[in-house]
Write a structure and sequence with these properties.
The complex is a heterodimer. By secondary structure, chain A is an alpha+beta fold. Chain A has helices at residues 2-24, 205-210, 222-230, 232-243, and strands spanning 28-39, 42-52, 56-62, 69-72, 79-87, 94-98, 103-112, 115-124, 131-139, 142-151, 154-161, 179-185, 190-201, 218-221, 249-258. Chain A is built from four helices and 15 strands. Chain A is globular, with a radius of gyration of 23 Å. Chain B has helices spanning 2-49, 80-89, 92-95; strands at 53-62, 68-78. Chain B has a two-stranded antiparallel ribbon with strand order 1-2. The chains are: A alpha+beta, B alpha+beta. Chains A and B meet through strand 1, strand 5, strand 7, helix 4 and strand 15 of A and strand 1, strand 2, helix 2 and helix 3 of B. Strand 15 (249-258) of chain A pairs antiparallel with strand 2 (68-78) of chain B, so a sheet runs across the interface.
């Protein structure tokens, strides 16, 4: 009996060690994508990295310091005409997908009460129903297959490769039998192109800092985020109202927004 | 006769003195008028500088998730300086 107990203890210790080793040796992959947003025929490219292991993937922006541009150009004698190109400069965009818990967390910033405020937005993974076709093409040296799927109001055409049999893809697009290399929506307003593939990839502490969420940010649900985003123009209006001289009136003459996600589930509305 | 001469001398002196005093007074009135006129023209100049106009601000900003928002606002009856201040207000970085 004593011998059996000793054997069980050794067996448990052995298994714990194996488990620890497997966690340490979890293989990572790193894919670099270029996202091109082409709203109003004005293409804007941004570079992102997708880092993944079997449990999670994290899609994070690689960006330099934002450039701010402001111009003052009087257009006529009766009007002062000003144009601003403003970019938020706080947190960077990070999308963390936990496949075990089936949740997505995104780090975003919004304009609220005259200030920039960052949030962690939590939502459930929305499984895309992909239709895999028999169309193939070569993307660099990889054989890619075409798949079509809809996600939040846009129809996406994706090219994935079975040569890298992982379910990951850029942003919130995933769930195909191979890595998504290129994907674009029908109107070519939202596009992702693969730039570099590193598998296996040795993740280190420096890499992990690239996509670490700040602990100071408030956690909010997707419906809350959508509601706040819908009020952005009003928030800007508030800021300007506070800077106005006494008696001056302000009129909102025009406003428009371009979104990647056009529709949400029934419970969420803009 | 001597008395009459003294009296007429006093009257003449008084008339001359009064006339000079009136001239001085007129001079000082002229000064006041001039000052008021200068003040009026200064007021006119300031009004020209502070002429109020409409100020249109166009905003184009991008959220981190890629959403772009464009807005156009018109501020009614603001001075050039207030319009410029609003331009500065749009530089988020300086406000945070």
């Amino acid at each position: 009996m004593k011998n059996i107990s000793i054997l069980i203890v050794f067996f448990l210790i052995g298994n714990i060690n194996l488990l620890a080793q497997s966690n340490n040796n979890k293989s990572y992959g790193k894919i670099t994508y270029e996202r091109v947003l082409n709203f109003d025929s004005n293409p804007k490219p941004t570079t992102f990295n997708l880092l993944f292991n079997p449990d999670f993937s994290v899609f994070y922006e690689l960006r330099e310091e934002p450039k701010e541009e402001a111009t003052l150009k009087p257009s006529s004698d009766d009007e002062f005409d000003l144009s601003f190109d403003v970019k938020f400069n706080g947190s960077k965009y990070i999308v963390y997908t936990d496949f075990e818990k089936e949740i997505i967390q995104s780090q975003v910033s919004l304009f609220r009460d005259g200030k920039q405020k960052s949030y962690i937005v939590e939502e459930k993974i929305l499984k895309i129903k992909w239709e895999i076709t028999n169309d193939y093409k070569m993307i660099n040296t990889l054989k890619a297959q075409k798949a079509i799927g809809s996600f939040r109001g846009r129809k996406y055409i994706a090219w994935f490769t079975n040569q890298i049999p992982v379910k990951y893809g850029p942003w919130k697009l995933n769930g195909l039998p191979g890595l998504i290399l290129n994907v674009a929506d029908e109107s070519n307003e939202v596009m992702f192109f693969v730039k570099e593939i590193k598998i296996p990839f040795q993740s280190n502490s420096e890499t992990k800092n690239d996509f670490k969420f700040s602990s100071d940010f408030d956690k909010i649900s997707l419906p809350e985020y959508v509601k706040l985003k819908g009020k952005q123009i009003d928030e800007v209006k508030k800021l300007f109202s506070s800077k106005l001289p006494r008696g001056a009136k302000m009129e909102m003459t025009n406003s428009k927004s371009n979104n990647i996600e056009l529709e949400f589930e029934e419970t969420i509305k803009y | 006769m001597k008395k009459l001469l003294i009296l007429s001398a006093i009257i003449s002196f008084s008339i001359v003195s009064f006339a000079f005093a009136g001239r001085d007074m007129k001079k000082s009135f002229d000064k006041v008028d001039a000052v008021e006129l200068t003040h009026e023209s200064h007021k006119l100049n300031s009004e020209e500088v502070e002429l109020l106009k409409d100020c249109t601000v166009r905003l184009d900003f991008e959220l981190e998730d890629g959403t772009t928002i464009q807005g156009e606002m018109t501020f009614v009856d603001v001075s050039w300086w207030d319009c410029t201040k609003m331009q500065l207000a749009a530089w988020w970085k300086r406000n945070f």
